[in-house]
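Could you help me review a protein record that somebody else here produced? Here is the record exactly as it was handed to me:
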Amino acid sequence: MMKKMIITGIIGLLLFPMILFSQSDTLSPDRKLAIDSLALEKVRDLSKYIKIIGDKNTPWSEASRVIDRAVELFMEGSEIGVSSLSRPEINNYPVREYFNRLVRLNYDKVNIEWYKIQYVSDLERQPDGTYVGVITVFQRFQGFDRERGLVYEDVTKKDITVYVKRKETQIGGRLIGFWDVMLGDIRVKETTK
């Protein structure tokens, strides 16, 4: 399963610059469709990574590798919000710290499922040429105790900021332009039972 995710990610990274090659800073409808698809795929990958990291049966060495992969999806300085039914405040953690905390959750078993992954705001061009959009997900979290069974459960609606930036790389002496998709802050919008 992990090999398949890594291979899929590598293929996507290799094909993305070719698919999205462009000399202009505007998004054609076809290019926008490809970018939307890639952004949703990155969010789905993040969902898989979170499930692996939170799983108490995942060996530390594998969790550590998956954390590194998950961090690569984000822009530097991004934060992830955490909420609980037992407290009114929302805590925001730097991405790597969030994942490290997820590994250390004090449950014997953890189930984390993301569903209803969809755009809620279309990509909008910013003055610097970057496009920004928001993807909403619903997260079901369940924490289990060996003796008592399910001890905590909630459903959280989260908004993920998506950034699309024009970048260039040199391949075989040629400058190639491409659009890169990065995830930004993940903000908690609502937590319910």
User: Anything to note?
Assistant: The CA atoms of residues 79 and 160 lie 10 Å apart. The two ends are 31 Å apart (CA to CA). The first strand starts at residue 79 and ends at 84.
